[in-house]
Amino acid sequence: MSADPLRLEWHVSSKVVVVGGGVIGSSIAYFLRLSDPTVSVTVIERDPAYTRSSSALSAASIRQQFSTPLSIQMSLYGIEFLRSIGERLKVDGAKPSIDLHEGGYLFLATPSGEATLRENHALQKRLGADITLLDKRSLGARFPWLNTDDLSAGAFGESGEGWFDGYGLVQALRKKAQALGARYIADDVTALNREGRRITGVVTSRGETYACDVIVNAAGAWARRVASMAGIDIPVFARRRSIFNVSSPARLERCPLLIDPTGVYFRPEGATFICGTSPSPDKDPDDLPLDEVDHALFDDVIWPTLAHRVPQFEALRVEHCWSGYYEYNVFDQNAIIGHHPDVDNCIFANGFSGHGLQQGPATGRGVSELILHGRYVTLDLSALGFDRVLENRPFVEKNVV
Ligand SMILES: Cc1cc2nc3c(=O)[nH]c(=O)nc-3n(C[C@H](O)[C@H](O)[C@H](O)COP(=O)(O)OP(=O)(O)OC[C@H]3O[C@@H](n4cnc5c(N)ncnc54)[C@H](O)[C@@H]3O)c2cc1C
């Protein structure tokens, strides 16, 4: 398979240091040790309870309804991985459970969005995703609680889409990586020692220096700071996203994760629901504090949209809410995976912009291949490489939520 050209001149490397142990860093550590137990893998994670990590604060959902073959293929592998997680990540016979619920996504379209929905659906079907296109009448028949007045079509994931325990996924990957021999260090990376085209050491706040043959930047919303330690600018910024957990007397039979044409989403969470949306660009500066939640967004945008789409949601109550950061790639809202042309032994796996949890398994597998083989072996992720940013070739994924 074609992949990043072998100008990297990497071979099997003895010491890999991963900065950040969220879903991306832990998946990379797991696949590295699984594929080659001779490689030493050190993950440096400053927040081992994951109190601020996006992986623990997300909506923890997976879908196949993307508009590019690569995004779909990454999620197809994601669901395959999640379905078999007990077997793959068991430690000493104990199988982790992430409570995967394949309740489906329901993407809704108004007349102006129908052509795109149909085009995406054709691609998803061609690649083997189990998505059904529904016209207005079938939407109403299948989801009788839905207001379809302004809709013309919808696309529903019959299987392969749904939600799970995101924190559980990170813990399961981390524990398995550790069981396979990866070492986790609770410390803050504060500097990278760079000599010419190579990073030779990773320095932490406790004054330790970890020598490395390869370093991976898996620092999530803080990736830009870590990249800057290597003298590299990556267009990834911390953009706060709030989630609201609401209770309601509404009884919504077979409720999926619904994506309204406005971008507002909701899904069941036990007997309650969670919901959210992205703020408008003028209200979306970098680095807003995580201990605050955007209540105005709920009052002004989310609730009115929910009540319009599902009249039973006129009655609902916010039970609790939280915020996490999208590690937002302002260039094209998709992951940047691979090396930067100026530094040979530094791999980036950043900027997932709201769909990184589901892309964790495919990213871990791909990055481990890049490190161990100098190229992608299974799924070619080179379309997500750093080059596209430097050459101004956006990876256009129409279904970014
Ligand atoms: C509200 C919300 C909803 C979301 N919903 C979904 C969804 O439904 N489906 C989906 O697929 N994705 C979703 N996402 C996106 C997903 O959560 C992220 O893309 C994914 O978790 C990114 O994983 P990560 O490992 O890169 O980042 P993180 O989980 O943030 O891990 C990065 C880690 O790096 C550590 N770190 C940073 N800098 C340093 C340093 N200098 N030294 C040491 N450690 C460091 C941090 O402590 C952190 O733990 C959502 C995100 C949010 C915020």
TrEMBL record:
GO terms for molecular function: oxidoreductase activity. Residues 15-370 form the FAD dependent oxidoreductase domain. Keywords: Oxidoreductase. One of its GO terms (cellular component) is cytoplasm. One of its GO terms (biological process) is mitochondrial respiratory chain complex I assembly. Gene3D superfamilies: D-Amino Acid Oxidase, subunit A, domain 2, FAD/NAD(P)-binding domain. This is Glycine/D-amino acid oxidase.
